Amino acid sequence: MEDIVLNALKRIREPQSGKDIVSLDMVRGLQIHEGVLSLKIVLQIPPQEAHRAMEREIYQALERIPGVKEVKLHMSTEAGNTPKTRPGNRLAGVKNIVAVASGKGGVGKSTVAVNLAIALAQAGHKVGLLDADIYGPSIPTLMGLKNTPPLVDQNKKKIIPLEKYGIKTISIGYLMRDEDAAIWRGPMVGRMLQQFVEDVDWGELDYLLMDFPPGTGDAQLSLSQIVPISGSVIVTTPQDVALADVIRGVAMFQKVQVPTIGVVENMSFFNCPHCKERSEIFGHGGGKKKAEEMKVPFLGEIPLQQDTRVGSDEGKPIVAMQPDSAIAQVFKTIAENTTRELNLINESRPAVNL
Ligand SMILES: Nc1ncnc2c1ncn2[C@@H]1O[C@H](COP(=O)(O)OP(=O)(O)OP(=O)(O)O)[C@@H](O)[C@H]1O
Ligand SMILES: [Mg+2]
């Protein structure tokens, strides 16, 4: 059995050197017990994006072996252990900060952020949603919380986030009118966001989702420096113009060493409620193809759907209102994929001497 496993592993190459991982002596502690195969993969350098593709390849290769029921893979650097949070995480109670971003505006980031947050909460996680779009906050509308100023805990001197649909949330839009938000300038925005992270009483959270403003300019880049982001979810639509921006989105986060959790294709196709026919209005599948090309995970595809749009406009997110619907199932799958990919990222994060 061990031979079969090693043979399978020999076909997998370390992306930097191009050599196979067995010859490079990266495989350690191989054990097979009652169908459970456990092993460690030791990297010589801190893991890169490509190592996650390699990790997935290893899982796929080993899970295919007859008799293997489960694969337990632990990836680490030579130095050893793997902290769950990024260095400099000022939010002791928050395990993961997830940016929901896109290169292009209007692709449905905020809609995805809200529904993904609710789907994660429905799966039993503790979830927060931070609206990082200071100039055009849409979370208050989507959550049905316009003009609902949060309270301040005078003892702790902290803002208490609003709670609805099982998630905690904060947005500049809860505090002021949209027109007032438009006067904010760059440095003020930075301070505001820092406050949203540090001066809001988030408590214990498994995931804090950040709805990013559209684009990949300096403003977006600086956000990732203000807040210790664990990974990013890039939202796109299937049109070529939006897909071209996926590359920019991924590249922006890579510049600041934020790994990509994966790509979501929104408005992927349309199931006509009357004629039951499926049409692919903007084309379909481009998001998946782009993710494969870029060797980043594909998290799922969301159909264009009227209830989703109406729910967003009325502050009644579809996943909260119709938790048993097909569309809620789509978000549930995306939530599961997000959790899994983020766990892989956290497991492979190198040891940091704080
Ligand atoms: N899957 C979907 N089906 C139908 N309508 C959708 C879907 N996703 C988003 N929309 C609608 O598209 C519009 C834009 O969505 P949203 O505000 O979430 O995009 P955004 O990327 O956050 O925009 P911005 O770049 O302005 O922040 C909204 O009216 C929303 O209701
Ligand atoms: Mg938005």
What does this structure look like?
With 354 residues, the chain is of the alpha/beta class. It contains 13 helices and 15 strands. It has helices at residues 2-10, 49-63, 109-122, 139-143, 172-175, 178-181, 186-198, 218-226, 240-255, 286-294, 306-313, 318-321, 326-348; strands spanning 27-33, 36-43, 70-77, 94-101, 127-131, 152-153, 158-159, 162-164, 167-170, 205-211, 231-236, 260-265, 270-271, 278-279, 298-301. The strands form four sheets. The protein has an eight-stranded mixed beta sheet with strand order 8-9-5-10-4-11-12-15, sandwiched between helices. A three-stranded mixed beta sheet has the order 1-2-3, with helices on one face. Strands 6-7 form a two-stranded antiparallel ribbon. The longest helix has 23 residues, at 326-348. The chain binds adenosine-5'-triphosphate and magnesium ion. The site of magnesium ion (MG) has 5 residues, from α3.
Question: Which fold does the CATH topology of the largest domain refer to?
Answer: Rossmann fold
Instruction: Give, in spatial order, the strands making up the sheet with the most strands.
Output: 8-9-5-10-4-11-12-15
CATH class of the largest domain: Alpha Beta
Query: What sequence of helices (H) and strands (E) makes up the elements?
Result: HEEHEEHEHEEEEHHHEHEHEEEHEHHH
| CATH architecture classification name of the largest domain | 3-Layer(aba) Sandwich
Taken as a percent bin, the fraction of beta residues is: 15-25%
| Number of helices in the DSSP assignment | 13
Briefly note the structural class of the backbone. Answer: alpha/beta
User: What spatial form do the alpha-carbon principal axes imply?
Assistant: globular
Largest sheet: 8 strands, mixed
Let me know the CATH homologous superfamily of the largest domain: P-loop containing nucleotide triphosphate hydrolases
Rg over alpha carbons: 21 Å
